[in-house]
Amino acid sequence: MSTSELYAADVEALVRVLDEAREDAAGEAMPWALLDGLLRVVPCDSDVTYQHHDHQARRTLCIQTAGLDGVHAGPAPDEGDGPDDPFWQYWWQGPTSWPQRTGDLRSVICTRDFYPTEQDWLADPISETLPQIRRAMLVSLPAAPGEARRVAFLRGSGPDFTERERQIAMLLRPHLQEIWLDAERRRAGVPQLTAREWEVLALAAAGMPYARVAERLFISVGTVRKHMEHVRERLGVHSIPAAAARAMPHAPAHLRVPRPRVPG
Predict the structure, then answer these.
(1) Cα 70–46–152 angle (5° rounding)?
(2) pLDDT tens track for 36-65
(3) How far apart are CA 75 and CA 59, in angstroms?
(4) How far apart are CA 247 and CA 242, in angstroms?
């Protein structure tokens, strides 16, 4: 088996990390169990960080860091961060802003994609802003215009990231975004609903009668009623409009598209 192929144990480890993250407290950015788990799946002698940058204003909004020594830091910005920080002087060079320059947030990038050798990296002035880092792997996440969000795997020494580890990161990417969105909903005080409960609520909130909801989702009317009972109980409300007002702003993106009202 080549170093670029995934092992069955890799998939099992990924599932375990994601399950632990979903069960952990939401935290202030990412659940800590997620970053600790990522360190187990892709070991780094430096750390794994969740980063949120406002590159238009040249400031870091959040750095949440988990290291192999068990030290957690964040999710506050670095103390030295600001418009004059050397990090921002080289933001538009090399791998740092490649996803924002190209619009490609799906690809997982490594420093070796831009600097084939360590000498190439050290020859670039940007390396002076990150003296403790020799190798990085960046997983970009969706962000507002002018901002950048990503999970960064960082190594100060040792081997470079393998293609197998890049594949692991690529498999993780959509789940990282889902976990962050779920944490955001929990921080906003919206109880976690199942995928089916979100669908039922979205259709009912658009004015669709239970019979039409049941027809659309291929379930019984009784099942629709039971789902809505659970939704109202979890949200602590007594009506569909109240449930929609509280929950729908935090619904999965594909359910937040306005739907026309359906005559009853």
Answers:
(1) 100
(2) 999 999 999 989 999 999 999 898 999 999
(3) 14
(4) 9
Q: What is the torsional sign of CA 136, 137, 141, 143?
A: positive
Eight-class DSSP state of 49: E
3-class DSSP state of 160: coil
What is the token pair recorded at 253? 């993106």
Single-letter residue type at 141: L
Q: Does a cis peptide bond (omega within 30 degrees of 0) precede residue 116?
A: no
Position of tokens 């190594």? Answer: 155
Tokens at residue 31, please? 């659940």
Q: Which residues of the chain have pLDDT under 50?
A: 1-2, 258-264
pTM value is: 0.74
Q: What's the pLDDT score for residue 146?
A: 93
Please give the angle made by the CA atoms of 168, 121 and 66, to the nearest 5 degrees: 45
Residues 160-184 pLDDT 10s: 999 999 999 999 999 999 999 888 8
Distance of CA 252 to the CA centre of its chain: 13
Question: What is the side-by-side strand order in the sheet with 135-141?
Answer: 72-73, 59-67, 47-54, 147-155, 135-141, 109-110
Q: Residue holding tokens 């669709």? A: 208
Rg from Cα positions in the chain: 22
How many residues make up the chain in this entry? 264
- How far is 232 from 240, CA to CA, in rounded Å? 8
For residue 166, give Cα distances in angstroms to 4, 49, 74, 132, 262: 9, 16, 25, 21, 46
Q: Which amino acid is at 64?
A: Q
